[in-house]
Amino acid sequence: MASSKKKLQGLVAATITPMTENGEINFSVIGRYVDYLVEEQGVKNIFVNGTTGEGLSLSISERCQVAKEWVTKGRNKLDQVVIHVGALSLKESQELAKHAAEIGADGIAVIAPFFLKPWNKDVLINFLKEVAAAAPTLPFYYYHIPALTGVKIRAEELLDGIQDKIPTFQGLKFSDTDLLDFGQCVDQNRQQQFAFLFGVDEQLLSALVMGATGAVGSTYNYLGKKTNQMLEAFEQKDFSSALNYQFCIQRFINFVVKLGFGVSQTKAIMTLVSGIPMGPPRLPLQKASREFTDNAEAKLKSLDFLPFTGLEDRNLEACS
Ligand SMILES: CC(=O)N[C@@H]([C@@H](O)[C@H](O)[C@H](O)CO)[C@@H](O)CC(=O)C(=O)O
């Protein structure tokens, strides 16, 4: 059985994997990165080797080393470290799950295999069950991200009776905009104490209304503080302030989405905001352009997400 750890809730940063200019993993900045998340962003949970972390572009050995480094540097600083162990090969996924347990991670998450795909719920459950069984002491999360995996099995369907098949099942990371599916996951599992972690940062407030217990996302690396203010306002039932915070976050995300936004751009923004070099992404991704970085920087300043340096930057649309 999974250990009776505290439920995963609040913000979870989907960590970036820092790299050097020649494409190797830059382990040397991970300690600083942990401190930045905790001290500057108020984020104490992380999700390692996921989409943002380019987990599927790393070798198995690299994934193990990255996971170990985060667990080691996060000890006594972070609340929970969840490792994404999804892979196309069941054997590799099991190896990663086992490794996560050995290094003392707090949970594992798995996406649906996306090349030879499970064609129905039972097949997907069978795959997840075999991975979960490789780490029987760790809480298990299903990572639903249909736009990237192409596996469109509804999460609501998957969750029906899941704990009978996967006793360590502890929650769902839902990276999709289908709030009907998300709402039904919450509604139909009220007794289960699952963690319902939403993964579309620009829509988090809607998901909170729908019953999300937390959120995993890329923007919590650098907008964690602002998003925590939204969570607090929501908690206090100050919905007008919560909406202001969400709109403010949306203004930034909307701006970068129009320029073209993904993992490469997340790396560039995090470098700008934190001052910690995240480096380029690994192929097939391309480094964010200079033009993107300049535009993102100006927008961050105008919203007061970055201190402004000159009068020309003076913020006109800052969110309080
Ligand atoms: C497709 C994608 O990368 N989605 C992000 C979001 O945080 C996303 O960057 C954000 O909502 C902005 O669109 C996360 O759901 C991904 C994530 O949690 C991960 O890195 O595993």
UniProtKB/TrEMBL annotation:
Belongs to the DapA family. NanA subfamily. It comes from the Eukaryota. It is an enzyme of class 4 (lyase). Its EC number is 4.1.3.3. GO terms for cellular component: cytoplasm. The keyword Nuclease does not apply. The gene is NPL. InterPro entries: Aldolase_TIM (IPR013785), DapA-like (IPR002220), NanA (IPR005264). It holds the Pfam family DHDPS. Its main location: cytoplasm. It catalyses: aceneuramate = aldehydo-N-acetyl-D-mannosamine + pyruvate. This is N-acetylneuraminate lyase.
